[in-house]
Amino acid sequence: MYLLWKELQPHLAKLGLGSLALGLIMIPATLALLLPGLYILTIYLFIPFLILEDAELKLSSCFYQSKVLAKEHIEICGLTALASFVISILPLLGLSLLDSPLFDSTLGIALETVFGMVLSVLMNTWLSTLFLEVSQK
Length: 137
Known about the structure:
Helices cover about 85% and strands about 0% of the residues. It is an all-alpha fold. The longest helix has about 30 residues, at about 10-45. The mean pLDDT is about 85.
Protein backbone atom coordinates (compact mmCIF):
# COMPACT_ATOMS: atom_id res chain seq x y z
CA MET A 1 0.00 0.00 0.00
CA TYR A 2 2.85 2.34 0.82
CA LEU A 3 4.44 1.73 -2.58
CA LEU A 4 1.18 2.55 -4.32
CA TRP A 5 0.86 5.79 -2.35
CA LYS A 6 4.46 6.65 -3.15
CA GLU A 7 3.78 6.21 -6.87
CA LEU A 8 0.49 8.13 -6.89
CA GLN A 9 1.40 11.03 -4.59
CA PRO A 10 3.23 13.15 -7.21
CA HIS A 11 0.29 12.75 -9.62
CA LEU A 12 -2.63 13.36 -7.22
CA ALA A 13 -3.31 16.93 -8.33
CA LYS A 14 -3.29 15.97 -12.01
CA LEU A 15 -5.47 12.90 -11.33
CA GLY A 16 -7.94 14.98 -9.32
CA LEU A 17 -8.20 17.70 -11.98
CA GLY A 18 -8.51 15.08 -14.72
CA SER A 19 -11.35 13.36 -12.88
CA LEU A 20 -13.09 16.67 -12.26
CA ALA A 21 -12.76 17.67 -15.93
CA LEU A 22 -14.07 14.30 -17.04
CA GLY A 23 -17.07 14.66 -14.73
CA LEU A 24 -17.77 18.17 -16.02
CA ILE A 25 -17.68 16.86 -19.59
CA MET A 26 -19.82 13.80 -18.86
CA ILE A 27 -22.68 15.69 -17.16
CA PRO A 28 -23.62 17.88 -20.17
CA ALA A 29 -23.02 14.98 -22.56
CA THR A 30 -25.37 12.76 -20.57
CA LEU A 31 -27.98 15.53 -20.36
CA ALA A 32 -27.65 16.14 -24.10
CA LEU A 33 -28.73 12.55 -24.67
CA LEU A 34 -31.30 12.21 -21.89
CA LEU A 35 -33.24 15.45 -22.21
CA PRO A 36 -34.30 15.02 -25.87
CA GLY A 37 -35.26 11.42 -25.12
CA LEU A 38 -37.36 12.48 -22.14
CA TYR A 39 -39.00 15.20 -24.24
CA ILE A 40 -39.94 12.69 -26.95
CA LEU A 41 -41.23 10.29 -24.31
CA THR A 42 -43.28 13.12 -22.80
CA ILE A 43 -44.82 14.19 -26.09
CA TYR A 44 -45.69 10.69 -27.34
CA LEU A 45 -46.70 9.22 -23.97
CA PHE A 46 -50.32 8.58 -24.92
CA ILE A 47 -49.95 6.86 -28.30
CA PRO A 48 -50.77 3.33 -27.02
CA PHE A 49 -53.89 4.61 -25.26
CA LEU A 50 -55.06 6.54 -28.32
CA ILE A 51 -54.64 3.43 -30.46
CA LEU A 52 -56.68 1.40 -28.00
CA GLU A 53 -59.32 4.10 -27.69
CA ASP A 54 -59.98 4.34 -31.43
CA ALA A 55 -58.69 1.47 -33.58
CA GLU A 56 -59.76 3.29 -36.78
CA LEU A 57 -57.44 6.23 -36.05
CA LYS A 58 -54.37 6.49 -38.28
CA LEU A 59 -51.02 6.21 -36.56
CA SER A 60 -50.04 9.72 -37.64
CA SER A 61 -53.21 11.03 -36.00
CA CYS A 62 -52.29 9.21 -32.79
CA PHE A 63 -48.90 10.91 -32.82
CA TYR A 64 -50.52 14.30 -33.37
CA GLN A 65 -53.22 13.86 -30.72
CA SER A 66 -50.68 12.60 -28.18
CA LYS A 67 -48.55 15.66 -28.86
CA VAL A 68 -51.52 18.00 -28.40
CA LEU A 69 -52.64 16.29 -25.17
CA ALA A 70 -49.14 16.23 -23.73
CA LYS A 71 -48.43 19.88 -24.57
CA GLU A 72 -51.65 20.95 -22.86
CA HIS A 73 -50.46 19.21 -19.68
CA ILE A 74 -46.69 19.40 -20.18
CA GLU A 75 -45.73 19.58 -16.49
CA ILE A 76 -47.49 16.43 -15.33
CA CYS A 77 -46.65 14.58 -18.53
CA GLY A 78 -42.99 15.54 -18.18
CA LEU A 79 -42.90 14.33 -14.59
CA THR A 80 -44.64 11.13 -15.66
CA ALA A 81 -42.10 10.56 -18.43
CA LEU A 82 -39.24 11.14 -15.98
CA ALA A 83 -40.82 8.76 -13.47
CA SER A 84 -41.34 6.20 -16.24
CA PHE A 85 -37.67 6.43 -17.18
CA VAL A 86 -36.50 6.11 -13.57
CA ILE A 87 -38.87 3.21 -12.92
CA SER A 88 -37.62 1.40 -16.00
CA ILE A 89 -34.03 1.74 -14.72
CA LEU A 90 -34.77 0.58 -11.14
CA PRO A 91 -34.93 -3.17 -11.84
CA LEU A 92 -31.56 -2.99 -13.60
CA LEU A 93 -30.03 -1.24 -10.60
CA GLY A 94 -31.65 -3.75 -8.28
CA LEU A 95 -30.17 -6.63 -10.23
CA SER A 96 -26.68 -5.14 -10.05
CA LEU A 97 -27.05 -4.66 -6.29
CA LEU A 98 -28.24 -8.24 -5.86
CA ASP A 99 -25.37 -9.55 -7.95
CA SER A 100 -23.13 -10.29 -5.01
CA PRO A 101 -21.79 -13.41 -3.32
CA LEU A 102 -24.48 -13.06 -0.64
CA PHE A 103 -27.31 -13.73 -3.10
CA ASP A 104 -27.92 -16.66 -5.38
CA SER A 105 -28.06 -15.42 -8.99
CA THR A 106 -31.36 -17.25 -9.53
CA LEU A 107 -32.84 -15.38 -6.58
CA GLY A 108 -31.55 -12.09 -8.00
CA ILE A 109 -33.11 -12.72 -11.39
CA ALA A 110 -36.40 -13.80 -9.80
CA LEU A 111 -36.50 -10.70 -7.57
CA GLU A 112 -35.64 -8.44 -10.49
CA THR A 113 -38.40 -10.01 -12.60
CA VAL A 114 -41.03 -9.64 -9.88
CA PHE A 115 -39.88 -6.09 -9.11
CA GLY A 116 -40.06 -5.17 -12.81
CA MET A 117 -43.54 -6.68 -13.17
CA VAL A 118 -44.90 -4.84 -10.14
CA LEU A 119 -43.40 -1.53 -11.26
CA SER A 120 -44.73 -2.08 -14.78
CA VAL A 121 -48.27 -2.64 -13.51
CA LEU A 122 -48.07 0.46 -11.29
CA MET A 123 -46.68 2.58 -14.13
CA ASN A 124 -49.34 1.41 -16.59
CA THR A 125 -52.07 2.11 -14.05
CA TRP A 126 -50.67 5.58 -13.49
CA LEU A 127 -50.37 6.27 -17.22
CA SER A 128 -53.88 5.05 -18.02
CA THR A 129 -55.34 7.14 -15.20
CA LEU A 130 -53.41 10.16 -16.42
CA PHE A 131 -54.63 9.58 -19.98
CA LEU A 132 -58.24 9.36 -18.82
CA GLU A 133 -57.83 12.59 -16.84
CA VAL A 134 -56.17 14.65 -19.57
CA SER A 135 -58.33 13.35 -22.42
CA GLN A 136 -61.57 14.47 -20.75
CA LYS A 137 -62.72 17.82 -22.03
